[in-house]
Design brief:
The structure is a homotetramer.
Chain A lengths: L7 H20 L1 H7 L5 H28 L5 H14 L3 H10 L14 H16 L5 H8 L3 H14 L8 H24 L3 H32 L5 H4 L1
Helix pairs in contact in A: 1-2, 1-10, 3-4, 3-5, 3-6, 3-10, 4-9, 6-10, 7-9, 7-10
Chain lengths: 237, 237, 237, 237
């Protein structure tokens, strides 16, 4: 996907995305550990917990873009509802992976989302309900293409922790779904963005949501350093 | 669909639905004209205008049920988003039919929805955003099964007005989609309703939304009697 | 209030309001009983129950108009929030009156709102969240001036049922608050309505919300005829 | 206000607030400049622009807490609507101050909020619409008490820029309103918080919203370093 296309705007968006990922791997404590192959099982579990939390809202805020659909564009509305349907319930995979790792966590006893996770969730609802309709595509653009950046460190993690495929369903499933989604997101961006302002608004959401994701993961890492394990969360709270 | 099933609750819902339709055909001025084959082209056009208005909101309020999804039930959430996707943009068919009939109406110059249409729309949003999740199925239950009741008078109308299939895309398309949807709605009702209170809440929405639809159509008929034609709406407003 | 003002638009709104009230007293089964002095204690109680339900939402939907405030008009926004504050918790008075009448009803065991009450509530939220900002004033316009029309029959009821002032706090308190509110609503209408379309939009809400209130009260009367008393509601449900 | 009270929970909240402010003045580039008396007129103007943006939403999200009011607590609901009324339109003061400084800025030509400002706004809506009702008080708690911390550096700024009172209406007006509000916020916290979890939820919002405010101001400072002046914003965008 990140190869060049016929659209200078998409290419420019891709270039910014790559540079933001580069910045993350350089400056984020979490991503530095991730790249170095230093993710422990407990840290992976804490990551999955926050993944569960924000993923619960992704199909919801995606659908809300279709609910607004101020221009009554049936094709974009269908895209929003269809993607929302495709991603409904994916948070269950994060819970499944946690349990496959041996953590007795379900939606009743899971810890509340970290403030940084809530901030990411809040921002995505805000953009979905008040931004121009194309803006949420800025989130989809990087989220559906993140595998290029996270699969190599994830392979290290899988190997060092000897993870089975039953313990990584969330990330594996998404890397598969997202190949097709990624094409659709690009096509929809070309359809929806009709001015430099439109592209700029999308770029802003891409950058901001990726940075907030980085802040969330750094908060996960910081929590890990303070508590070591999901099992200790209650006492550390 | 209205044949008996293995579920006494579905059968009872069906019986109530039939009795409500019977009541409509007996007491509603619009439905009496409809059954008698007395729908003129102008009255059909006024009907399509209000159909456009409420249909614009149906995929939206259907999606909102999935956005809430308080129990995090992935299967019901997917059902909501999928149905919303299936019905996205259907209001365009109502506009298409209007133009195929010769009325120069588009979304810029269409008249505002009647108060009775707004009331129906408002009620469906209210139920979708505050009711128990299964309640909106009470609307789907009758809406996806209405063809048994409206196809016979519609056949009379089609014949008396010599309507072509290009002038009836809205109702024809829905009667086709809705065969499959109707099965899914029944299956989902059986999955979602776990108590007599649940079934009663669904029944209440079925009755209320059908009655509000009847009031909307009676308001269409009353407008028709005052104005004769969409062309006269401006002067009559 | 219903005397003539210096504004032809306000005077015309008042004339329409009077004519709608006249229509209600002529055609509504509830209002005919009310005017005839035939409201029993049980019927008054059923009325208070629905009053509790819609009143819970009035300060809320009033505040939502201020939350939207698309034109960033500070004066109108302050009016909305101030009126919402003035009416917050008034539903408690309806509960209080019920208990003062001897009914053991609180918010835990109160029956659910009738479909007609839900429809009124739904319509007021719809107008408050999607109408032009001034439209909800169409509801306030008649609601804050209804005492001219309902105090005479209410006096008959008070006398025939020997009601004490502790049993009529809801209606008495409102008739007092609303003298001042009514002036403010008129001033705000003159400030907000700048075209014939604006006045027409307000008039539509005035008529529709008054009619929906009439339908709610007729549903109360119909429920009364079927059940006689709040005490029988459970068995009649 | 930050003196000790009879409530250990309020005292603990105050202690955390002070420590967060200490952290801000130590680590935030903006607050270090602010404390050192190095705020230029252009930087003050950029600050006022973002102040305009988030302030537009404060009375709105405050009112939304009253709209939800899940426990139907009339006293808290009235508090929310009353505070919303008190703060309605305060964003106009920020615009006024900008113009009094000589910047030709109004709501038509003002630059869009920075991503960090949007994130703060988004977070406050999220907490107001999905948190426990008392949580937004965590924002009010520090916001209505911030003058202890910002008045000393503000005095330096006022002196070094020779600002008149007509150029600082926003901050002066708030420091006055907030004396009374601050007492009410404390009383309401004592009324609403009934468990350690409640106080913890409030503390989390206090810390998070103060940090997001710090990030917003650091983004203002960073924008200032890139552009020097609001007049250059268009070319730098």
């Amino acid at each position: 996907m990140s190869n060049s296309t016929n659209s200078p705007e998409l290419d420019s968006l891709t270039a910014t995305m790559k540079s933001e990922w580069g910045r993350l791997f350089e400056t984020s404590p979490f991503f530095r550990e991730f790249e170095a192959g230093h993710i422990s099982k407990d840290l992976y579990a804490l990551w999955l917990i926050e993944t569960y939390h924000y993923t619960r809202h992704n199909s919801r805020n995606q659908a809300l873009v279709g609910v607004r659909n101020p221009g009554d564009d049936p094709q974009y509305q269908r895209f929003c509802f269809q993607h929302a349907a495709d991603e409904a319930g994916h948070e269950q995979m994060a819970l499944h992976d946690l349990r496959a790792l041996g953590y007795e966590i379900d939606k009743q006893n899971i810890t509340r989302p970290l403030p940084e996770t809530q901030t990411l969730i809040a921002y995505l609802y805000w953009i979905s309900t008040t931004g121009i309709p194309s803006q949420r595509l800025g989130y989809s653009f990087w989220a559906e293409n993140c595998y290029e950046f996270i699969l190599p460190p994830m392979a290290k993690m899988t190997e060092s922790l000897s993870l089975t495929s039953a313990q990584t369903t969330f990330f594996v499933a998404h890397s598969e779904i997202d190949v097709e989604h990624s094409q659709q997101v690009q096509a929809m961006l070309l359809r929806q963005c009709n001015s430099e302002e439109d592209w700029q608004a999308v770029r802003e959401v891409m950058i901001t949501s990726l940075r907030l994701t980085g802040q969330m993961l750094d908060a996960v890492y910081s929590l890990y350093q303070r508590t070591s394990s999901p099992a200790n969360l209650a006492s550390a709270a």
